[in-house]
Amino acid sequence: MNLDELIIQWFCMIDDGVTACLGERRLRQRGSTPEMADSEVMTMEIVGEYLGFQQDAAIYRYFRQYYGHFFPAMQHLHRSTFVRQAANIYRLTEQVWQWIREQVPYDHHLGIVDSLALSVCQFTRAPRCRRFRGEAAYGQDHLTRLPFYGFRIQARICWPGVICQFEVTPGNASELEAARDLTQGTSGLLLGDRNFWSPRLKADLADHQIRLLAPFRRRKHDPWPAWSYLLSQWRYRIDTVFGQLVDRTALKRVWAKDFWHLCHRLLRKVLMHTIAVWTTTLLGLPALQLAHLIP
């Protein structure tokens, strides 16, 4: 599959999702109809994320220069209009992601939860940072074991690597509380790392037919090291997903100036990953081999 074929296929998937989500309803009750279809804007966003473009301006310039024959309206569409339309269809993007997520074959009863620290500025500049004031908070990055200032992305994926739910919380938010939110309406096995060792959480989730499996909190005093190692081998799948989002979409680079735009940027990265997993499945490739979509 080359890039042209990928753009066409993803546009068809997105367009089907928009049609399924809207039905006969109109997205805009007032005002003029945009020159560019929402499915076109959404397609350019996720393809741009797949190609590694970190800013809206870079996506705009790339498609205007190289794919004007696919998207003719780009030739006379201003950059700010493109960016504004992309941000304004946030709710529709969320609905399309949920629709596409249900088209991907995955195990509904085998989930993995974890979180990822998202710094909004360097730690030494945090006291002077004006962005996200009152929304971001100080926390500890479990990967580097260093303090940070920003948010925490809480996520639940289902095997073999489909992002099923995620939320953005302040940096000091509890992972255990987030696990309750991410598992509402689900059942089956739920895997976590040592931070999720909590007999109380395990008992609460068991009341909702969810069995939480997590290694003992302290590795040094772990009474079941072999069992913990086996759990970690399965749990690493969510680290792979996080790694793909960080490497391919620069997830940890926060370009947004407010929380709403931050959520929109995160959502389109998750949408890109979900539709890429769906495409690899259709092509008969391993689910997380996203780099093999374009040789």
What does this structure look like?
The chain folds into two domains: 1-103 and 255-295, no CATH class; 110-253, Nucleotidyltransferase, domain 5. Helix 7 links the parallel strand 5 (188-191) and strand 6 (210-213). It has 295 residues and is of the alpha/beta class. Helix 2 packs across helix 3 and helix 2 (38-51) crosses helix 9. It has helices at residues 3-22, 38-51, 56-66, 79-88, 90-101, 175-182, 199-206, 225-249, 259-282; strands spanning 110-119, 137-141, 146-158, 162-170, 188-191, 210-213. The termini are close together. Strands 1, 2, 3, 4, 5 and 6 form a six-stranded mixed β-sheet that branches.
Query: Which residue ranges are poorly predicted, with pLDDT under 50 across at least 5 consecutive positions?
Result: none
| Most strands sheet | 6 strands, mixed
- Helix tally equals 9
Gyration radius, to the nearest Å? 20 Å
Number of strands: 6
Label the structural class: alpha/beta
Whole-Å distance between the termini? 7 Å
Number of domains: 2
Instruction: List SSEs in N-to-C order.
Output: HHHHHEEEEHEHEHH
Strand content: 15-25%
Q: Approximately how much helix is present in the residues?
A: 40-55%
Average pLDDT, to the nearest integer? 92
Q: Outline, from the CA principal axes?
A: globular
